[in-house]
Amino acid sequence: MTEQEFIRNNRGIDNSASLPDEFLAEIYHEIRENEIKLKDEHEAAATAQIDKLDDLQLDSRTRREVYAQISEDIAQKTEALFRNMQKATAKGGRRAGNLFGRSNYTTASHFQHVRPMFEVAWMPILAGISSPLQESLDDVDMINRCLDGFKYAIRIISIFDLELERNAFVTTLAKFTFLNNLGEMKPKNVEAIKSLLEIAIVEGNYLKGSWKEVLTCVSQLERFQLISSGAGGQITDTSVTRTAKATTRNTTSSAAARLTNKGPPQLNLSEDAVAETASQKFVVLDAITNFVRCLSNVSWEEIKSSSHLDNPRTYSLQRLVEVAYYNMNRIRLEWSNIWAIIGDHLNMVGCHPNAQVGMYALDSLRQLSMKFLEKEELANYQFQKVFLKPFAYIMTNNEDPSIRDMVMFCLPEEALEFGCMIQARAQRLKSGWNAMFGVFTKAAEQKLEQIVVMAFDIVRSLSKDRFGDLVVNGTFPDFISCLVAFAKNTKFARTSLQAVELIRSTVPRMIEMAKAETGDSPQPEAKSAATDSLVGGGTVGEIPGLRFWYPIFSGYLEIVMTCADLEVRTR
């Protein structure tokens, strides 16, 4: 088909109008020079040439010459293709598929346009700022520019919440701190530490899971401070396992000797940044929960890596307790999400084989409980019960007698009884009574006399001084179940008999409380109704006094049917 025939054949195709002859001529020449073929046709042609060579059964020399000729033809066709595309570029052609044609420059009108651009370019950007930072030694300007690149990139990542990119940039910057290799640390690594802490302060609400990298560096920085002060022989890196502890002590000690003289000026600057990082204020709930979760993970790694020492590292655990303390004033729904993470961590730490770790966890839990119980609990909420559950968990799952004993005593200097904490905050306890009697029930099942006697003394004291609070807050069934557990522990017969007697003594006390409620001496039915109101109030159709008598009779039945001591069953 000639050019004129092609033009004549395509007249009237533009909505009954004709395209310009020049445009149709360009299309004609493009098709003539670059024949339109399907991909399968190109592959079939190339395969046919190869198969033809195989069928000819040529010798190796001839075969190489033929392959060279085919390669030359392909190269010439490729060169011609690029030459034609360059010509089209020079002419400013509009032909379809022209990769090198002119394009209009579009000015971004919305900040969201940055996201797809950064998603495409983040890998070259990361390589472009990390490679010079790694290779530069004394070029301060280059180092600062690279670190600024990390700051600006992480700022963009934070705005658009790009998880993969955030992990890549923060992890790369954390590696440049060299806190796990003190002997190779250089001034640029100190600048990387400062930049990482600055990013944590500015972008803390958006770091999410990348907080673990930041907090690990903070933990290692604190370890570096201790090494510089001469405690290198007792400090273990969180990234080092127990099997390598001897080598680690030698390495860190020698590194400390080389860095002691020049360390303090750099550390003073870092301490200010660390303090500001620790006082970070989170606006978004997800931000504080992510921070607490990462801090718990770093704390557990610290404890595991140093559990073979006499005094394991608890730096991150201390910071976690501080976070819990200073965030108690948040609304209860936010606080419950935070405590769900901290409580699980304290459960693990409290059951750690190293007694020093468990004691620190219990003492921290006691102090937090004293602070938490200063606040009133609203009706129908269970925050106190959830908060105090770790005490029962540790009592149940830690086999160390000293830890179980410390659930009743907080040692070493103050010897403050756990029961005294309850007495001091009893007027504010509501749902927390359930958790407390759960602790005493677990203590009643122990085989150590000191723990059993101590727990029973606390329960007896509460029965004497806080019986009304137990009844009003609906904890009377838990109180009876706790006494039944003491009665069934036949290893200590005296305590068992005293528990049975304490159950019996509750009956006249309930009657007296019913009299005080009505103001006179009621009839038996009235007594039951008044008593029922004291244990939470009955509803229409319920048996009067059922909530009071049922726990007592059920407790007696359990003692008679399951207790192995005949004297206790008889009593």
Automatic annotation (TrEMBL):
Say if the entry is tagged with keyword Acyltransferase: no
The protein's matches in Gene3D superfamilies, at most eight in alphabetical order, are given as: Arf Nucleotide-binding Site Opener,domain 2
Which InterPro entries does UniProt cross-reference here?
A: Mon2/Sec7/BIG1-like_HDS, Sec7_C_sf, Sec7_dom, Sec7_dom_sf
This protein's source sits in the domain of life called: Eukaryota
Ranges for domain Mon2/Sec7/BIG1-like HDS come to 371-460
Any one Gene Ontology molecular-function term assigned to this protein's record = guanyl-nucleotide exchange factor activity
Question: Can you give the residue ranges of the SEC7 domain?
Answer: 1-36
- Main location, first listed in the record: cytoplasm
Q: Where is this region: Disordered?
A: 242-262
Which Gene Ontology terms describe the biological processes this protein takes part in? regulation of ARF protein signal transduction
What GO terms fall under cellular component here? cytoplasm
Cite the entry's keywords alphabetically. Cytoplasm
Q: Where in the cell is it found?
A: Cytoplasm
Where is there biased composition of kind Low complexity?
Answer: 242-261
Q: Which Pfam families match?
A: Sec7 (PF01369), Sec7-like_HDS (PF09324)
Q: What is this protein called?
A: Uncharacterized protein
Organism whose genome encodes this protein: Olpidium bornovanus
